[in-house]
Structure formats: structure tokens, C-alpha cells
Amino acid sequence: MNTLLIIMTIQGCLGAFDTLYHHEFTERLPWKPQAAQELWIHGVRNFFYAVIFFSLGWLSWGGWLSCLFAAMLLGEIGLTLWDFVIEDRTRKLPASERITHTILAINYGIILALLAPEMMRWSALPTGFHVVFHDIWSWVMSIFALGVLAWALFDYSRSKRFKVVESPPVLHLEVPRQRILITGGTGLIGRRLGQALINDGHDITILTRDKAKAAQFSGRVTLIDRLEDLRTVDIIVNLAGESLSDGFWTRAKKQAMYDSRLKLTQALADWIAVAKEKPRHLINASAVGYYGHSEILEFDESSSGGKPDLASDLCRQWENCAGQVASYGVKVSYLRLGLVMALEGGALAQMLFPSEFGIGGPMGHGRQWMSWIHIYDACGLIAHIINARIDGPVNATAPQPLRHKDFIRLLGRTMHRPAILPLPGFALKMGLGEMAETILLRGQKVVPKRALETGYLFRYPTLDLAFSQIFHGLI
């Protein structure tokens, strides 16, 4: 019996890792409307596991009750298979999650093999529940039982909060049926923008290294994995680039950050140079990091910038690379993006895990500025740039930036959670190095002067309005 309880302990630890690391932290399932059914399955399955853990620690199911216990074990298998089907339909699992699931399945098979003789013994007992005690292992099983029961209730309740499914913003370009290339089309903005333009009746081409991931688009779309396959287009929206806020900035990471932007943008410039029919407009992503950092200055598109850092250098090189196509008669716009607010990715998504568990709080001193934009406005501003034929820099930020401590306070209030546990700057620097210094602990106050001057009306000019839309019906 001790061998069985050891294997169950391993199963419990693997399950906790899978739940916390994959479901909560990396995949953020509780914040994806399409994951509602998967969360419901997790809730029911965890309830089964709670009964299994507690029973193995303290009870023998005598007589015909042993058959009921066996049915529950088989029910867990059925739920797991159903879960696999739902996962494959709704998301692409990372390799680490698939490996973890495989180990869990193998381990569960071992548990069933070890349980078989034990359940034969149970069936010979008088019908009823018989109390047993396995020393320390009974208490270990109790801990796991309480943990998975709590998570069963947690997942079940969160599966019910999805009252609305996030949809792409409604965009209307003045010129109908335009041919538009989007690079980075499977990214945070690219997914929403691409689907919105498809819905508006345009011919969309997505340049992607992962065509399977791009299959999420519904409607008429062309997928290519190399520029040589690109036909004539009217507009190029270049959103591709390695994430700056994802992980430690090693030498290889920094190189990838530069290469993913500069090499692709140069390839686009080379393609435009030889194209017989050139696009009329290139909208090239950049970021508010272009301005460097400052706690006191306010930046608009005419500002020279604050203190330089790696992010500002990267943005300037990126914009310079894109700007060369202007010599071919192509209009060039630089979309200097702030922090994009959306549940499925970006800065806000990274804050959801600690905030939901009440351990959110300001990073560092909290005085750093956060210039942000709702994802609908990010897409809407791209459409506005196309319609208004705007060239040059355009700050893609909401009109009201705010300090990080105020941002966190409003997030906590919206989520009905405390947001009072500060994360010291030195701890962030020790854990994440230069990335924390540049991205998390510094900021800039950026205002969308050109967007407002050219008549763009922000749907979500304030953070409370943005959060009302993002979290409406979800909490």
C-alpha cells in the first residue's frame, strides 16, 4: 500500500505543477472564454481526485461500494480523454504540457495496476466504509484531497464567469476590398486585426512561420511562410517581433529581439524594392520605448526622448530600417505602441495570475509611468491611419497614462482583490536582470497627440472604461 501512496503523491505533485504552471501561469486558462468547457472538466475531474486521495488515505470501500469506486476511476479516464479532445480543439498545447500529460497518464496506469489487488480485497469486506490509517501517508493524502477539492470548486466557478466571448473589433476601411499583408498575424494584435479586416471584406495575407497556429482565422485568408510567395498588396502592417517582456535578456535573447524585427523589416524593404506594383502604405510597429525613460517628461510624436536604453535603441533602429521604403514612394507610418490591454496576452495577462490570488502589488517604487492602450483602440488606430493616410510616427496610447501604482490599484479594485504586496525593485533585478530594469521598473508618459489631432476617437480613453470592457461579464 505504501508504494501506491508514494505513486499517488507523485501524481499529486505533477498535477499541481500542471495546474499552476501551465493552466494558471503560462496558458492563463481562467481568462480565456474558449477555455470555459475545459475548466468545467478540470473542476469535475479534480472533485474525483479529491475523493480518491481522501479514500486512499482513510477509507476502504467495502462490498459493492468497491464497484462504485472503480466506476469513479474509470470516469476519471473518460474525463481526461474528453479534456484532450477539447484542448486540441481550442488551443495549441506547449511541449512541456504535453510531456506532463503523458507522464500523468502513465503514472495513472501504474496507480490502477497497484489498486487492482487492493480493490479485490475491498470487495470481500462487508458493504460500507471502513476506516484505515497509514501513518504519515494518511495525512499526506488529506493535504492533496483538500488542495484538489479547493481547486475543483475554483475551476468550476470560474468556468461560469464567461458570459461573453471576446470578438474582434469592428473596423471599416473607406476603400473596400483592399489587399493587406500582416506580419505577426498570430500575435496579440495581429489575431484581432486580421480577423476584423477579414470580417470587413478585405483580402488578407498572413506571413507566419506556423501555419497551423494561423488556422484560427475564419473566413477568406491566405497563409504564407516566405515573402517569395507574396503577391501584390496595397498595405503592409508589420507587427512581427520577439517579445521584450518574456524572460531574461541573455545575449541570444537580445540578438533575437533585434533580428526578428530588423531582418524581417529589411526583407520587406527588399521585396518592395523589386516589386512591380508597390504597396502604397507600410504601417510598421514600434513602441513607446522609442522615447527612452523618464519620470517627469511628457512625450508626444515631436519629442526627442528621455534617457536612452536598449528598448529605445531597438525601436530607433527598427523605424530607420522601415523608413527606407519611403524612397520607393511608399507611405510609412510608425505605430509606437504602449502596453496593450487584453486578457489573452501582453502586460495585463501577465498581471492576472498574481492579482487573482491576492498577491499583486506595485513593482519597485510604483512611480513609473504606464502608457497603455485597449486592444480595440490599437486595431482601430491602425484602421484610422489607413483611412486618414497618416505617415510618420503615431503614438498608439490612450489619452490618459497613469503611474504604475495607480494602475495596480485600479486592477485590484476591478478584480475585487487586494493589490498591496509590493515587489521590490532589487528582487526583480536579481531575478530578471536588464529586462526588469528596462521594461518593468522604468516607463514614460506618452500622449497620442497625432491620433487626436487627426480625429481619432478613442473608444476607451480611460483605464476604468477599458477594464469595464475587458472584465465585463468575466468576473
From TrEMBL:
One Pfam short name: Epimerase
Residue ranges of domain NAD-dependent epimerase/dehydratase in the record: 180-303
Alphabetized InterPro entries for the sequence: DUF1731, Epimerase_deHydtase, NAD(P)-bd_dom_sf, SDR39U1
Originating organism: Asticcacaulis taihuensis
Entry's family note: Belongs to the NAD(P)-dependent epimerase/dehydratase family. SDR39U1 subfamily.
Transmembrane segments: 47-74, 99-116, 136-154
UniProt keyword annotation of Ribosomal protein present: no
Keywords in alphabetical order: Membrane, Transmembrane, Transmembrane helix
Glycosyltransferase is among the record's keywords: no
The DUF1731 domain, residue ranges: 423-470
Protein name: TIGR01777 family protein
Gene3D superfamilies associated with the record: NAD(P)-binding Rossmann-like Domain (3.40.50.720)
